[in-house]
Amino acid sequence: MLEPIPNSQQWERGPRIVAIGGGTGLSTMLRGLKNYTRNLTAVVTVADDGGGSGMLRRDMGMPPPGDIRHCMESLANVEPIMQRLLTYRFTEGALAGQSFGNLILAALNGVTGSFEEAVSQMSQVLAITGRVIPVTSADVQLEAVFENGTRVVGESKIYDFKKQQDCRIHHVALIPERPRALPSALEAIREADLILLGPGSLYTSVIPNLLVEGVPEAIAQSDALKIYVCNIMTQDGETEGYTAGDHLEALMNHGAPGLVDLCLANSAPVQAGLVERYRAEDAVPLAVDRERVAAMGLELVERPVASEGGNFARHDPDKLAAAVLEIYRQRAVRIFRGKERYIIEE
Q1: Tell me, what's the pLDDT at 227?
Q2: Which of 7, 200, 216, 304 is deepest in the core (most CB within 10 A)?
Q3: Does residue 341 carry a pLDDT above 50?
Q4: Which ranges of 126-213 does DSSP label H, i.e. alpha helix?
Q5: Are 225 and 332 in contact (CB under 8 A)?
């Protein structure tokens, strides 16, 4: 049963949700969640070093803006022309491939002298629902270490390197190790009623946030309901052959005990044509190994949250948000301990 869209008063007083990750998966989920609560915070990785974001990172010495921008686009409340401008990519000249939204963030970074403040100012310009917070302000690189002992530094290099090595990723790390989290990110996690990890690239979008000092501990210590949202498909060059249990095991190995309470997986079939196309790219619908998830002591919920159309196998923003809120409301009770607070019902 889909949760009804709340009225304005319910929306204002909606649960405090923190969504942690990066990339297309996170921004897709935010697009649906913003209809249910204004108290929404995205904590976003800054380990990207490819594409237009990588160019700005190298040329201007700023954190990569791409994943941040995607989240703000999803949460923005602006006129259609502004939405088109944010997503516009230049096709010619020195700016070819660069996003206009990235350039706005780069300009604000120069004006304010702080990437965190640049994100805050752009959030105001776009009148976004909730907040978008970089997980750290440190200049970090992502390193992947493979099961055969080889390693590569640079998020954008992991795909090709993994294909060459033809073995699984053993773990990833940040360079420098354990950078400081932004205090606002930790505060949002501590105050959350609901914490969501994923969906998104396991090793390059979700896990990098868990490698920042204080983040996995803050999640584990929280009384909030903690949900891992599984991807629809495995990912070529990152998680070929992985099951839902493999994803969860990787999360636990990089995080802390108590990181996840519940795993939300898609139960809807992926269109046959899409399955064939993805299979040609070494990607398949994610297998849900129910007994293994149960053995981990985690609850598993399966819902039809995949998009029914389009050229990619992705989550439907509205179905995913409705499923998440339905799960949350079934498992939480409102109590008072000096202030209004949601906790998990034992």
Answers
A1: 98
A2: 200
A3: no
A4: 158-165, 183-191, 207-210
A5: yes
Q: What is the mean pLDDT of the chain?
A: 93
Read off the tokens for 125: 């310009």
Q: Is-contact 129 39, C-beta < 8 A? A: no
Q: What are phi and psi of 107, to 5 degrees?
A: -65, -45
pLDDT in tens, 122-179: 999 999 999 999 999 999 999 999 999 999 999 999 999 999 999 999 999 999 999 9
CA-to-CA dists, residue 304 to 109, 175, 282, 315, 317, angstroms: 41, 38, 23, 9, 12
* pLDDT tens readout for residues 232-266: 999 999 999 999 999 999 999 999 999 999 999 99
Mean pLDDT of 32-49: 97
Contact call for residues 103 and 111 (beta carbons, < 8 A): no
CA 283 – CA 281 distance, rounded (Å): 6
| Measured distance CA(319)–CA(268) in Å, rounded | 11
Q: pLDDT class for 2, splitting at 50, 70, 90?
A: low
Tokens standing for residue 318: 């509205």
Q: 264-284 as b/e, with b when 16 or more CB fall inside 10 Å? A: bbbebebbeebbeebeeeebb
Q: Is 181 exposed, middle or buried (0-12, 13-18, 19+ CB in 10 A)?
A: buried
How large is the greatest C-alpha to C-alpha distance in the chain, in angstroms? 59
Helix 66-75 with 23-33: angle, nearest 10 deg: 20
Contact in structure between 144 and 190 (CB atoms under 8 Å): no
Backbone angles phi, psi at 172, to 5 degrees: -120, 160
pTM of the model: 0.93
